[in-house]
């Protein structure tokens, strides 16, 4: 019976795994304000292969130090197998793939030289197949990506803005044993702890969510919820960013920082830090028990209601951010919540050890009021953008202000404005 309950709970958590759908747009608005009084530096575009070839002696040391940190922090994390570790003796022709294997990410990720055009600019379009291996391109078909050439000069803000979206392009797809991939059997992450391993985008869910404040009874029955990995990715890419800056590769310093920011921004979304806001532990367990004996409707309704609000806030945010940027509506209440920061509004990013307290706890605590407010709106799904004084904008303004706050704090901690 206990195995049945656990299996049923596992299926329950096959809910949407998207977070903010428009990382690039949000980050554009943040940097537009945060760096407004400074000249944004230009950096020389550099291929990943070039960076790795020049710094191959330092890569494995950086990855090893990051893994030591993560192993101490995440008891469910296994060590990287020796045969996957990056070596200074790696042949240049294989160096990018070897780097991906050492990171334990999707080895087919392309790391193209590009910017996401936010706002829209002229240039040579980059075909999506040169950017991502995703079969279902989703909202990427709505975006414009411009090709860059190695050696070209580009603004650091454009690098960060583009990079914050990139981990969703395929970086964490199919990394578990029960996914359709060869590396899933090599990486040591085990079976996918939650989400649907047969669904392409869902396979990345445990790397983009972090559940740290659920009731003890939930963790007792569903210990797999502890098996999340955003902290691993944030630490890996933060340390690589620091290495790149230290060694004179600012393009990759900014790009790795953008990759790390993606996961931090994901965790500011309440539905990524709380499994089922406003659904008590007893109710979660209760609907599982009655579903086991054949009464499926209560569980189906619960999933539908929560996932519907989860999807609504992300869909609405995506189209709203695109609209305010294209129309330059800088006075929209959601925009002002993101952009209008004074010295007293800022917070300090002391270390990644504080992520759970400063980011995840804040998002978890916002889960119940956010979910209740969204339910009271009685909007079943996204269909249109509303007038500026609509209450959905108050909800978004509160959430995205937190995203803005933590994005600024992280970038300031790296001192990446150089």
Question: Can you summarize this structure?
Answer:
The chain is built from 16 helices and 4 strands. It is mostly helical.
Description of the molecule:
- Keywords: Signal.
- GO terms for molecular function: hydrolase activity, acting on ester bonds.
- This is Phospholipase.
- Residues 1-19 form the signal peptide.
- InterPro entries: PLipase_C/P1_nuclease_dom_sf (IPR008947).
- The protein is mostly helical and 418 residues long.
- It has one domain (2-7, 9-414).
- It is 50% helix and 3% strand.
- The protein contains 16 helices and four strands.
- Strands 1-4 form a two-stranded antiparallel sheet. A two-stranded antiparallel ribbon has the order 2-3.
- Helix 6 packs across helix 10.
- It is globular and about 60 Å long.
- The protein starts with a helix and ends with a helix.
- Residues 1-14 have low confidence and may be disordered.
């Amino acid at each position: 019976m206990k195995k049945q309950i656990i299996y049923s709970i596992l299926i329950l958590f096959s809910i949407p795994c998207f977070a903010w759908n428009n990382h690039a747009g949000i980050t554009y608005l943040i940097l537009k304000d945060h760096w407004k009084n400074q000249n944004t530096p230009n950096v020389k575009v550099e291929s990943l292969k070039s960076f790795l070839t020049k710094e191959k002696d330092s890569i494995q040391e950086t990855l090893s130090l990051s893994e030591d940190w993560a192993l101490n922090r995440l008891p469910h994390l296994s060590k990287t197998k020796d045969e996957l570790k990056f070596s200074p003796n790696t042949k240049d022709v294989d160096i990018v793939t070897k780097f991906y294997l050492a990171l334990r990410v999707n080895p087919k990720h392309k790391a193209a030289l590009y910017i996401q055009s936010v706002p829209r600019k002229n240039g040579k379009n980059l075909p999506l197949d040169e950017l991502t291996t995703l079969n279902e391109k989703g909202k990427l078909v709505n975006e414009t990506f411009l090709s860059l050439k190695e050696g070209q000069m580009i603004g650091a803000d454009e690098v960060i803005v583009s990079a914050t979206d990139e981990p969703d392009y395929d970086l964490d797809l199919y990394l578990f044993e029960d996914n359709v991939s060869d590396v899933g059997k090599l990486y040591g992450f085990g079976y996918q702890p939650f989400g649907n391993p047969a669904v392409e985008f869902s396979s990345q869910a445990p790397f983009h969510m972090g559940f740290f404040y659920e009731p003890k009874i939930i963790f007792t029955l569903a210990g797999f919820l502890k098996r999340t990995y955003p902290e691993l990715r944030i630490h890996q890419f933060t340390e690589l960013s620091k290495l790149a800056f230290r060694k004179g590769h600012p393009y990759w310093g900014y790009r790795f920082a953008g990759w790390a920011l993606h996961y931090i921004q994901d965790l500011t979304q309440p539905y990524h830090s709380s499994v089922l806001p406003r659904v008590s532990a007893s109710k979660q367990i209760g609907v599982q028990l009655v579903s086991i004996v054949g009464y499926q409707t209560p569980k189906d309704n619960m999933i539908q209601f929560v996932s519907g609000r989860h999807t609504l806030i992300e869909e609405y945010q995506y189209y709203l951010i695109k609209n305010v940027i294209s129309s330059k509506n800088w006075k929209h209440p959601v925009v002002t919540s993101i952009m209008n920061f004074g010295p007293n509004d800022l917070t300090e990013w002391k270390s990644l050890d504080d992520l759970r307290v400063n980011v995840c706890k804040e998002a978890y605590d916002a889960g119940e009021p956010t979910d209740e407010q969204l339910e009271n709106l009685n909007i079943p799904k996204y269909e249109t953008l509303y007038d500026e004084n609509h209450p959905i904008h108050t909800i978004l303004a509160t959430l995205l202000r937190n995203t803005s706050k933590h994005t600024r704090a992280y970038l300031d901690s790296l001192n990446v404005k150089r």
